[in-house]
Amino acid sequence: MSRTAAAALDRARGDLVLVVDDVPDNLALLHDALEESGCTVLVATSGAAALQRALQALPDIVLLDAVMPGMDGFEVARRLKAGPATAHIPIIFMTGLTETEHLVAGLEAGGVDYVTKPIKPREVLARMNVHLGSARRARQEAQQAGQARNALDAFGYASITVRADDGRLMWQTPLARDLLLAYFGGHPPHWPNLAPQAVTDWLRRSLADANRQVEPPRLVVELGARRLTFRLHQQTGDGGTGEGEWLIVMREVSDAAVVEAMSLCFKLTAREAEVLYWVAKGKINRDIADILGASPATVKKHLERILAKLGVETRTAAAAMALNRIRQLQPQFEA
Question: What are the Response regulatory domain coordinates in residue numbering (predicted)?
Answer without folding.
Answer: 16-132
